[in-house]
Amino acid sequence: MSEKITRSWWPDLLSIVAFVALTVALARGHLLDLDQRVADWSLSHQPAVPYWTARVFNYLGQGGSVLMPVTLLMTALLYWRSRSIRVALPFVATFVLTYFTIGPAKVLFDRAAPRFDGPDPAVLFNPAASGEYAMSYPSGHVANAIVWFGLIALLLGRELSRGQWALLRVAPVVIVFVTTVYTGFHWLTDSIAALFLGLVLTRLLARIPYDRIPLGPLERFAAPQHGLRGQAGREHD
């Protein structure tokens, strides 16, 4: 992502405000009827072929078992080409930031998913939410799609045209957003909240000056190069 894109803090601040406002509204019982109507429609319109197609495409937002291994392999290949430990910094930063934000948020808000067979599935801070369909807010899949595909775009860098870069950043997010709601794994507002959170996280990761981070004793493994973004990231204005 270009520094020109991330220079302004207004999108970040607006996304944080929107996330907080949406969360407060849900905590006060607003928008729950909308969530329930969307979920009822989704769960009652799931023929086998569309449903399982959506299930497969929903893996585009699976962080731990899909996106992390893919980006780790890409990072390893980039290290083999550059011989610089610095190319691993974006992966490390992405892992740490998502681990300490998305997961804790899901635990904190304690919301069940539409498929949860228990009391008050749509409310936040639900003590009855447990099992496979718990910890629904915000959607980890949607947030993961934004953040991890942002990392993939950075790692592919000069291999991508502007159009391919934009498609890689947008298409997976749209697909995961739609499929995660359609399959009944998340409420509509779960995915909307994840859009706000994911945007903040991916812009924060784009601001990190990976080329200038002191590495201490590991500095000797940071081979001279033309900059991490030159090796692994095309500038897109």
Structure in words:
The protein is built from 11 helices and no strands. By secondary structure, it is mainly α. It has one domain.
Furnish the topology, listing elements before pairings.
Elements: H1 3-6, H2 10-27, H3 32-43, H4 48-57, H5 63-82, H6 89-99, H7 102-109, H8 140-156, H9 162-182, H10 188-207, H11 228-232
Helix pairs in contact: 2-10, 4-9, 5-8, 6-8, 8-9, 8-10
Write a concise synopsis of the structure shown.
By secondary structure, the chain is mainly α.
Features:
single chain, mainly alpha, 11 helices, 0% strand
Q: How far apart, in Å, are the first and last alpha carbons?
A: 8 Å
Estimate percent helicity. Answer: 55-70%
The count of β-strands is 0
Q: Report the major sheet.
A: none
